[in-house]
Amino acid sequence: MSDLTLAPELSVSQWLNTPRPFSIAGLRGKVIFLHSFQLLCPGCVAESLPQVRRIERIFANTDLQVIGLHTVFEHHEAMTPTVLKAFIHEYRLTSPIGVDQADGQSDIPVTMRRYGFRGTPSSVLIGRDGAILHHAFGVEDDIALGARIGMALAAPVPAATPDENAEGCVAGICAAPAGAA
Amino acid sequence: MSDLTLAPELSVSQWLNTPRPFSIAGLRGKVIFLHSFQLLCPGCVAESLPQVRRIERIFANTDLQVIGLHTVFEHHEAMTPTVLKAFIHEYRLTSPIGVDQADGQSDIPVTMRRYGFRGTPSSVLIGRDGAILHHAFGVEDDIALGARIGMALAAPVPAATPDENAEGCVAGICAAPAGAA
Amino acid sequence: MSDLTLAPELSVSQWLNTPRPFSIAGLRGKVIFLHSFQLLCPGCVAESLPQVRRIERIFANTDLQVIGLHTVFEHHEAMTPTVLKAFIHEYRLTSPIGVDQADGQSDIPVTMRRYGFRGTPSSVLIGRDGAILHHAFGVEDDIALGARIGMALAAPVPAATPDENAEGCVAGICAAPAGAA
Amino acid sequence: MSDLTLAPELSVSQWLNTPRPFSIAGLRGKVIFLHSFQLLCPGCVAESLPQVRRIERIFANTDLQVIGLHTVFEHHEAMTPTVLKAFIHEYRLTSPIGVDQADGQSDIPVTMRRYGFRGTPSSVLIGRDGAILHHAFGVEDDIALGARIGMALAAPVPAATPDENAEGCVAGICAAPAGAA
């Protein structure tokens, strides 16, 4: 694995649906499905968010971690955290959702730029070793997506070294060992 | 036809997608499909608004008038006209949409209460004589909806009397004669 | 109405789902939805036959008469009446279905040729006066189809003349007056 | 792995879509998706066969082997090999399909009884070691199905012993080594 494929860290201004922040480093050892959306994006509402709910249900008893990222890059005046909270309530979204950190100089928020998302919906699948396994723009076929997540979950959990363990704690919060979730 | 079935007038604080206001009285002689929605209502976004677009396309060459009514009765802080404008842009809605007049004392806006809508999505079909032909809560079957509109359009255009013509002008704006649209 | 648009008569070798034969002449005064299918036609099975079931349900209390026509023009060795009977049982089709009369010299059966059907699924809507109101190849939009049937049902029932009445009786069977169904 | 979970052998009277017969033993080392259907089964036609086509497309470059089994247990007079051939042509099915061997004394064909299929559609997923990994009656969620196949493909290919190799050749035909397809 080259460092070039390592998933960049999240930059989030506000977390919803969770009492604690999440980080890529803190989830090392788990598989992560990170999906990027905007609440006024028709394809997100009609297709990718329902798919996320199916993923949550089907992998509920695995150590897959689903994380949503609200990557507002247009209509900033409309897609505020206040509106996002009402949206989450009406659409009954349950997994943790981070508001991508606005960039003072660009319409594109910070994490979206780091990951190179071309628009919404986008998603990345991150393996137990922190590498990006797949990067998608648009909605993918359910069977192909299921197969990728299944293969990622089948990978062995990497042995933790003391140093890695240290990195596993972020902002005073440490990830549970893989397999404990 | 009893007066009890006459469609009540609209009370709208702001019109979008149209340079001029619309009124039920001003449309006398035409068939009206009035649909009520909220931008954060999942059933509206997933089902009733796509159905409205199908209606607009299929009856484009008839004198059916489609009118949307944004009847916000919850999450008032989130579903503001600013957000509605972005929503209309993203979802490419093209027929006239009125913001239902807020009621200072109740969460239910004025027109919604007049029509007795129980929630969103709701719709009413109004005949050429101004009578309510059908009242629906939820999304209806396309074939049944098409049949009702087809039957309403097949009804003869009522002869206008001078008085009725006078009523056809509202707020300084007069509706085109039925059949001219 | 020109005679050129009059619906041609059916030529059926076997009727299923009905104890008595049907004819276009015998249904004068009613609206007829005649749909043509083959049991091994994927578009018929996936789309047009489910649409026919919706039509049957929605217009159950009107005098619309739905008639199916099994117009086999390929795989004649496979789509026999024996297989059609099992198909009707498994797919729970309930309206009368006629087996289109095979033509000894052509693959195209007799009624299919008379109507000029280009393939399956096809359908025609026949008005109360026996005229073809609409001719479709492929599956149509539900709203448009509902509107056409609604408009056809809204047409006045033509006054019967003694001669027309006589034509209304076919093979010893007379159609009920329109509106009685 | 207990012998109880080993996939039973196929008993097929006729193969379609393939010049050579297939066997479970001859595919040892590969993952097998075996799906059971009847051509007049509405759920098979509407849901499971389209899902099979998606599986074929998505796993085209893996060593997953898809096999269809026509398990006729009703309407035997209608669902003959002649009709099945026309069905395969119209529905453009491309993976190998075996006609399950009729049982002279029971309506249930031989392989269907061996596998304990309760009806159609049914399917089993068979691992590289010949064990049944999953048994389904009805159509499953695409994501869950994709995950199971992905995990099965991620399993290591078992080392072949000379004896196992011998069993790998059936009817004079030997399976290619896993990974070669």
TrEMBL record, chains A, B, C, D:
InterPro entries membership: Redoxin, Thioredoxin-like_sf, Thioredoxin_ResA/DsbE_sf
Name of this protein: Redoxin domain-containing protein
A Pfam family of this chain: Redoxin
All residue ranges annotated as the Redoxin domain in the record: 7-140
Domain of life: Bacteria
SUPFAM superfamilies: Thioredoxin-like
